[in-house]
Amino acid sequence: xxxxxxxxxxxxxxxxxxxxxxxxxxxxxxxxxHVAQEHLNYVSDDVLDLxxxxxxxxxxxxxxxxxxxxxxxxxxxxKYHLQLxxxxxxxxxxxxxxxxxxxxxxxxxxxxxxPDGVFTLDEVECLAACGTGPVLQxxxxxxxxxxxxxxxxxxxxxxxxxxxxxIATPNAVLSKPAxxxxxxxxxxxxx
Amino acid sequence: MEKLLSANFGxxxxxxxxxxxxxxxxKMLRKAITMPPSKIVEEVKASxxxxxxxxxxxxxxxxxxxxxxxxxxxxxxxxxEGEPGTFKDRTLLRWDPxxxxxxxxxxxxxxxxHHAYIYIRxxxxxxxxxxxxxxxxxxxxxxxxxSVLGKPFPLEITVHRGAGAYVCGEETALLNSLEGQRGMxxxxxxxxxxxxxxxxxxxVNNVETISYVPIVLDMGGEAFADLGxxxxxxxxxxxxxxxxxxxxxxxxPCGLNLMEIINDVAGGVRNGKKLKGVIPxxxxxxxxxxxxxDVPFSVTGMGSAESIAEVEVWxxxxxxxxxxxxxxxxxxxxxxxxxxxxxxxxHVCARLMHFYAHESCGQCTxxxxxxxxxxxxxxxVDRGEGSPGDLEQMALIADGIAGKTICPLGDAAAWPMLGFxxxxxxEFEAKVSGNxxxxx
Lengths: 191, 440
Description:
The structure holds two protein chains of two kinds.
Chain A: H1 5-19, H2 29-40, H3 45-55, H4 59-68, E1 80-85, H5 88-91, H6 95-106, E2 119-124, E3 136-138, E4 141-143, H7 148-159
Chain B: H1 17-22, H2 27-32, H3 37-47, H4 59-63, E1 74-79, H5 88-95, H6 97-111, E2 115-120, H7 125-140, E3 156-161, H8 171-178, E4 202-206, H9 207-211, H10 213-219, H11 221-226, E5 235-242, E6 248-253, H12 258-265, E7 275-279, H13 299-303, E8 312-314, E9 317-318, E10 320-322, E11 325-326, E12 335-340, H14 345-359, H15 365-382, H16 388-401, H17 409-423, H18 425-432
């Protein structure tokens, strides 16, 4: 997937600013991957090459970093990345049952994305909000004290695109390559 | 109960610099710039403030390890809160970020660091933003930047976000991650105070530890020490979750009785249920039975309390942390998880083993192989497909990991495995009874 020039320039500019805060360029690797992912949804090979090039690092090194950390998406994720903690404190508050309920509601298993590209569901480890579990992180926001009713109410709101920013800032949605002209659901270019 | 660090919790305005200053914030910074750095270190030593990340090393002593006259020193603040059950640092960052900023600036003055990095776990997006705002506000006031309140001491604080790795809470893995690498721990020595971030002398301290520094300066080290126990000074934050009436973050004197914390501070076990077990200091600490909870919540209190059974590898063979030293339990990161009578302890143990298997960085064979093996075996037993030999196998694996790894993550997996086997063996046995298949 070619990265549009405008996006590439913006990413490189942001990385350049961040790099100033460290004595070495390599130290900007993690923040750089976060920046690129904000714009481009996941760390594709093109993203790895871009970060490697910008910081003068070997691409294999950057790939090693990107694959080590769970938050760098290795595959495209939906507009809303649903991350449910199922570690101990959330588990004993019903997180496992909640996961099964969400899988049924969305029609996908944990680790998968809905066919319309809106929701990706993942099971995650402790999110450091154990006193108010179960905790469901949707993109940048934590939603605490979740049960199936509350969670599906949030998802319904996200589906209709209303009141979404207080629930989560949407992920970058990638458009399909320009080959075909037919409209499809992931043609809406949210930032 | 007295509130020092948690005084501003619950006030949405408290995170603004105006409110923080109005309630006395940054007064201690003004005092600190007039003090010789060694005096600040002395106060922190006198306070007996221990590290609040889980390892409990005395902060002032750690600061003393820095080589004298080092040209470049870094302060790195560990905000990678990832130990299951722990949520005190997130809480502190949300309510009182300026306390951390002030503590960081004072610490930098004390250790002659001109750049501090706050390593915050990647998932805490809002909190990273809250911190950035607080740092900006402080800079505008002249508390840091080109100088500190006019004192020619350039100081920058950078918020560095992690990207999802529990192991990066370990200080050397954190340093490697800060340097842009895979978060794999380093062998110690050298210790970070000698060679840390970018191989320079570095102090790594937990968010809560640094946040107490202004408070220590305010009341004086000795007065702070007196609030706690003989070897653990002051107050500390605890995060209590699970089956209690009032889960949440509370500030308690070091050494407060654990049963008192559960019953008085957190309202006791909820829904009229009976207490079955307590994980006292985050998932890596051995689980306690109800009658083992009448102990002081402190390192020595729980490390040597006779009422807490020593963790066993199997009947008659005690687990040894290192030659001769047995294991009881620990207050760890102050994360208390309360488990009631309905909890399936084998299921909890299996879920924890899955966590450690997922989070193992992979560097050391005992941990990389051992945690995955424990994950598979424990789940097999949990599903009712295990055989009696599996229990000895799990104990052997855990004992084979502990003490043989580059970092404590291996121990962090082994200790709860052995802890659950020691305290709840009958539940494991019940799940394998009647299964005569050979163990895997």
